[in-house]
Amino acid sequence: MKKFLSILSVATVLLFVSCMGGTSKSGTGGAGGEVTGVSGSSMQEPAPYGMVLVKRGSLKMGTESTDSLWGKDLPTRDISVDAFWMDEHEVTNSMYRQFVFWVRDSIIRERLADPAYGGDESYKIEEDKNGDPITPHLNWNKSIPWKNPDEDQQRAIESVYTIHPFTGERMLDASQMNYRYETFDYATAALRKYRLNPAERNLNTDVQVDPNEVVMISKDTAYVDDEGIIHRETLTRPLSSMWDFVNTYIVNVYPDTTCWINDFQNAENEVYMRLYFSHANYNDFPVVGVNWEQANAFCNWRTNYLIRGLGASAKFIQRYRLPTEAEWEYAARGKEGNELPWTQEGVKSEKGCFYANFKPDRGNYTEDGNLITSKVGIFSANSNGLYDMAGNVAEWTSTIFTEAGVLSMSDMNPELYYNAAKEDPYALKKKSVRGGSWKDPESFIKSAWRSSEYQNVGRSFIGFRCVRSQVGTGSKSAKGAKSSGGKTRRQRH
Predict the structure, then answer these.
(1) H runs (alpha helix) in 376-486
(2) Residues 178/230, Cβ–Cβ less than 8 Å
(3) Which of 183, 185, 239, 483 allows an S-S link to 215, with CB 3.0 to 4.6 Å?
């Protein structure tokens, strides 16, 4: 029996090693019987397009001086963060419009493959190259017949548009722009209390583990009913498999263009409501009217969009996400840890030029040269190579808003994340917003200033930018990334 177990153990180890796929220069053995390690596949992470590297470091988060306007004490703590890539400027209208158009085109392709619209099976791939069945997915190599479509194709294309009842204008049907995506909750799955094997839930050998213990797990799911209404539910059920850590979301991704009217009542802002997101003159302006849930959907789509173009190396790429509150402040302060993103005192130069787009005086929005938002990147970058980290638009972070702030988090990569369910109290839906905006006074654009907004609300003064954790943050990779990131990669979208 012991011999059988030994053979089984050796076989298990060999199977585990073979599954790892790594090889060393000397195979599984080292020179002279020494342990030399098994190397994996190495990959030099390229500088992501339009992003700059913010190197790992530490700062005293918050401020110890009481705010003169509101009399608020901002929580302070010494924290450290790992290196990450960050968009050099906020996500623009043109960038977000690419997301909306991708959702539009996916709906059209789905319908072109539907028998109700002609049933062109070439728009959907259901078999691999050997003819074996696979999970059906859209064929993005098959072009949409925008020019000279047949009758069925024309119906499929027109099905995502609507006609304004008064002007007769042909418009994209915003209510159909729903993006469905799934995420795996690695953090929850790693918690010991949720181990599938009950014996692993408590390592204290003095505690008798109940092998029949039922552990309840909550997961998010969503569906669209026959009327096109999105329903989101949080299910609580017994933990049974790794699939219980998969969350499903369906988000309508079209920005709330009415925010220009609802945020400023008794104001003539109709032109922004009608044209700000759709007109080419605003291409390089930061997208607004995007709520926290939509910003997260954009990050997921951007990740998947990148993965499709990378092939086998995609498994090493970190996902796009919203910055944590700590990451945002660390990046905004620059390498010097300044109160504002720039090194100079005050908010304008000796020549009277402002360093950011904000509200310099009561009712005088235009003193800095702008009435509302401005094109991204027209003001100087901070020492991290980041533009508009003060003013222009305030920015979503991934962190929930609490008065305790960083005091309730770890001092290493601090974060509090919670995607509130529909049935949760509305107070739990508050998320931290940083940076101040074009409508805010000087006090609100300081790097440490904290504000909040509910995750399902889009505002005319809130936008966002994405980050990606850097893979391998040693000095060598950080040094190499410096030459390929930063201003030299700055391009318009």
Answers:
(1) 475-484
(2) yes
(3) 239
pLDDT tens across 15-35, in order?
333 444 444 444 555 667 889
Q: Contact, 460 vs 23, CB < 8 A?
A: no
Please calculate the CA angle 245-221-320 and round it to the nearest 5 degrees.
65
CB 118 within 8 A of CB 152: yes
Q: How far is CA 417 from CA 60, 371, 420, in A?
A: 21, 34, 9
3-class state of residue 7 by DSSP: helix
Q: Parallel, antiparallel, or unpaired for β 394-400 and 462-463?
A: parallel
106 CB burial (10 A radius; 0-12, 13-18, 19+): middle
Tell me the C-alpha to C-alpha distance, in Å, between residue 9 and each of 12, 14, 22, 29, 469: 5, 9, 20, 18, 37
| Local structure of 137: helix, strand or coil | strand
Let me know: does 395 contact 435? Beta carbons within 8 Å.
Answer: yes
Residue 253 corresponds to which tokens in the numbers above?
Answer: 């991704």
CA torsion, ordered 207, 210, 213, 215, to nearest 10 deg: 30
In this structure, which amino acid lies at residue 322?
L
Instruction: Name the pLDDT band for 69 (thresholds 50, 70, 90).
Output: low
- The two three-digit tokens of residue 273, written as one number: 């409501």
pLDDT in tens, 259-275: 999 999 999 999 999 99
Please name the residues in contact with 116: beta carbons below 8 A apart, sequence gap of 6 or more: none
Kindly list the strands in the beta sheet with 84-87, ordered across the sheet, starting from the edge strand earlier in the chain: 51-54, 84-87, 467-469
